[in-house]
Specification:
about 425 residues; alpha/beta; Aspartate Aminotransferase, domain 1; Aspartate Aminotransferase, domain 2; 2 domains; 7-stranded mixed sheet; 4-stranded antiparallel sheet; 17 strands; disordered C terminus
Amino acid sequence: MSRYDVEAIRADFPILQRRVGQYPLAYLDSANTSQKPQQVVDAIAQHYLQHNANVARAMHVLGAEATESFEGARSRVARFIGAASPDEVVFTKNASEALNLAANTLGSRLRPGDEVVVSVMEHHSNIVPWQLVCERTGATLRWFDVTDDGQLDLEAAESSGLVNERTKVVSLAWVSNVLGTVNPIRTVADWAHVVGAVMVVDGAQGVPQRPTDVTALGADMLAFTGHKVCGPTGIGVLWGRLDLLSDLPPFLGGGEMIEVVRMEGSTWAPPPHRFEAGTPPIAQAVGLAAALDYLDGIGMDAIAAHETDITQYALEQLARVEGVRVLGPGADADRGGAIAFTLEGVHPHDIMQLLDSRGVAVRGGHHCARPLHDRFGVQSSTRASGYLYTTRAEVDALAEALDHTRQFFARGRGSARRSRRRHSDAAVGGGA
């Protein structure tokens, strides 16, 4: 596109034309799941209506077409993230499963005394699988802390020798799903590689927002999910260096992941099929390929620039709302689109409900990042997150709805105080 035309992009997303009561929908929950353009929906429908069959097994024309589409989607993903070969792309059902696959296969190498390093800002899907593997193997889980402004604390990590000769795996989010922090993956990957550790990257928030080159990033493995890149739910990706994947054991057993099965034992197919037991998410892969075509048609550089612009504008507008505290990096930082904040005296679930009543869709809670909220001394937060289709008018609707929410609860507190005073005055007067 020669010029970023957000209204033309929005026209491809029928759901964005919805209203919530009297209000137009302002969808600001894209870090949770992105909306889907008509082109993706049409690609999935076309597959089911014209090409539906199982892959690899069916030796008829529909089976051949389905297999071609499925393996074509694998090639499409490889091109989108700069992989050296489609054989480095493993399809899973989401990023969580991809990270569990990484943890369990890499975990086969771990022994007591080995260490795995994550960070306090990780999504639970990049904490819990490593906790489970460490409990099972006797390895130790360690983690990066974050600074008060939500950046990875590299200085403290370096001075404490967090990444050392005992480190076997480092697994970090590229972009925080809460703070929007963009982590220096290449720097940490260089640390990991010096000591012979594997660098795993949770790209669930980074891949949708930024041009991705897994080699430049310094990753050995990278996970992301389809439903955050305008694709369907039910499909995720684990990319891994082919030499690394070839050296790892299967994660699940079943059809297609085998070479030869005998009652005495089995041998395994080469990657990526070694890690894809059973019928895969075929239609979802077709939808994911269509989504990546759509994003590349706009241009990931243009999408990243729009994401930066709309996020900066949102931070400016939130700064004008009395009582709002933004968690993480400020407007002057390189950051992703997720903005978590608190509103003084109002619980995030109440904020979410009042905003929803005015058509503004956000998320309230700990966003599957409880340790990070503990680090900032808050139980939970509200999160607004835009994407390629977000407009300034939607951000304005967010700020106006937050101001309404603040005033609504201030009036409620004022009424409660007046009621308590009346009761107190009556009690004093009766006593006299």
